[in-house]
Amino acid sequence: MNTELRELILKLIEKNSRLAIHDLAVMLDVAETEVANEIADMEKEHIICGYHTLINWDNTSKDQLTAMIEVKVTPQRGQGFDRIAERIYNFPEVKAVYLMSGGYDFMVMLEGKTMKEISMFTSSKLAPLESVVSTVTHFVLKKYKDHGTVLEAKKVDERQAVTP
Question: Which domains does the chain show, CATH number per domain?
């Protein structure tokens, strides 16, 4: 295992997971088999957990709303937060769950079509879970940058100035 090579591969594919093994090998000046083997090993070790496409849903006709839900819980004896997190992340509506420091325990990211749909999920599935003390829902109104990528190009004003 070449730690330095792994970190370089990860940085490159984090920005663009569509890079071909050949291109990675050329960029890193190593053999294609070495790159392929490192990637395969990192997939087996769950360092690389998946490959995703970043989509700006605001530029499509699909209605999609993202919410971030703060969840306070009472940790379970002997299991801490892990068992509660597992119950939450097993809901198909949940896109991400993070254990947080600060004023609440989990940040749950959810996607739905409407505020009502997300609110119904929170009130009927999330809030009733044992150990959940409280929830606070925040709706994302606009995304400017996601996963290190600016989603909307800066608009250039092409109007000409009017002078007297």
Answer: 3-44 (1.10.10), 57-142 (3.30.70.920)
The Cα 164–Cα 68 span in angstroms is 51
How far is it, in rounded angstroms, from Cα 129 to Cα 115? 21
pLDDT on residue 51: 87
Residue 110: closest CA among 127, 95, 129:
95
* β pairing state of 94-99 and 149-150: unpaired
Angle between helices 21-28 and 32-44 (to 10 degrees): 110
Parts of the chain with a pLDDT under 70: 1
91: its two tokens: 């809901």
Residue burial 39-76, b: 16+ Cβ < 10 Å; e: rest: beebeeeeebeeeeeeeeeeeeeeeebbbebbbebeee
Taking only the tens place, the pLDDT of each residue in 25-64 is: 999 999 999 999 999 999 999 999 988 888 887 778 888 8
Residue among 27, 122, 58 nearest 35 (CA): 27
Amino acid at position 69, single letter: I
